Amino acid sequence: MSHAPHSLSPSDLTLDHVAIATPDLDEGSLPYLALGLVPEGPDEEVGSQGVRVRAFWAGPTLIELLAPTREDSPIAAFLARRGPGLHHTAYRVADLHAEMARLRGLGARFLQDAPTPGRAGTRVAFLHPRWGAGTLIELVEHPAPPASQ
Fold first, then answer.
1. N or C: which end of the chain has fewer CB within 10 A?
2. Cα 3 to chain centroid, rounded
3. How far is Cα 36 from Cα 80, in angstroms, rounded to an integer?
């Protein structure tokens, strides 16, 4: 499978987070707490994905721990197949719709037709792992900062 060169410059695409699947957020947090990382805020449930998320800052990148909230969630299925571990890498994009259209033009396959809600007010879309050389890739669009008053 070939991937055509893209139009983004390296500075336009940054690693947003690395996601780790775990059956239990408290147990899964132990290595990161031992490393000295501190949770970024309260845990957040993302109902559209069937997960509870705990995030840790590691420099400018987040480590997100994902625990299933229901048996039919993608994370529950991942844990049943593979056990705890790396689930996906996520990259920040400025315009998710435009990036999805651009990548579709290059033959990319997405797991959904349109963006879905993500953690902390983001919108997300997942690329099929076959397109990502066996790795699930997430694109993340953060909300615009509030306008100054």
1. C
2. 21
3. 29
Label residue 59 left, alpha or beta by phi (over 0 means left) and psi (-120 to 50 means alpha): left
For 80-123, the pLDDT digits (tens) are 999 999 999 999 999 999 999 999 999 999 999 999 999 999 99
pTM of structure: 0.84
Going by C-beta distance under 8 Å and a sequence separation of 6 or more, which residues neighbour residue 141? 92, 93, 94, 95, 96, 115, 122, 123, 124
The residues that bridge with 66 in the sheet, in sequence order, are 21, 53
pLDDT tens digits, 47-73: 989 999 999 999 889 999 999 999 999
Task: Residue 130: count other Cβ atoms within 10 Å of its Cβ.
Answer: 10
